[in-house]
Amino acid sequence: MFTSQYLIPFLEKEYKLTQKALRAFPAEQMDYQPHPKSMSIKQLMRAFGADLSIANLILKGEEITDPYAGVPEITDPEQAAQTIDDLLGQLVETLKQTNAEDLNKDLELWGQTHTVAQWVLAMLSDTIHHRGQLTVYIRLAGGLVPSIYGPSADEQ
Fold first, then answer.
1. Residues 12-47: pLDDT tens digits?
2. What are phi and psi of 107, to 5 degrees?
3. 54-92 burial by CB neighbour count: b if 16+ within 10 A, else e?
């Protein structure tokens, strides 16, 4: 059974690592897009906020009409990291007000049924996936890839 006490530290740890990666992106490369079919760095950075926004809407039982509502356009890596901090703070406050029974209720979304907590973790998984994408962008844009779960070739 999932509880807020379990989820909060896990989310905070993972988003701290995401903020570290965001801050590692070279600020002078904010127009970077590795391929026309790829997200631009600004779109990618904004996607992290959308994951938090969706998780918060799921917890509140609200309809997801615009996952980017409340997520500002991104102009630089520090602003992206601060946006994550702000949205994570909102999510943590919502989690603190959510009891274990509500976290473990089934919720059908996008044609799949999972518990509310599992949907929150699915949004975190999407963030982790995109964080890996971000580390590739960092390298291709000439930045130094930070350590995430262990040393990187750039930071030991």
1. 999 999 999 999 999 999 999 999 999 999 999 999
2. -140, 125
3. bbbbbbeeeeeeebeebbeebebbebbbebbeebbeebb
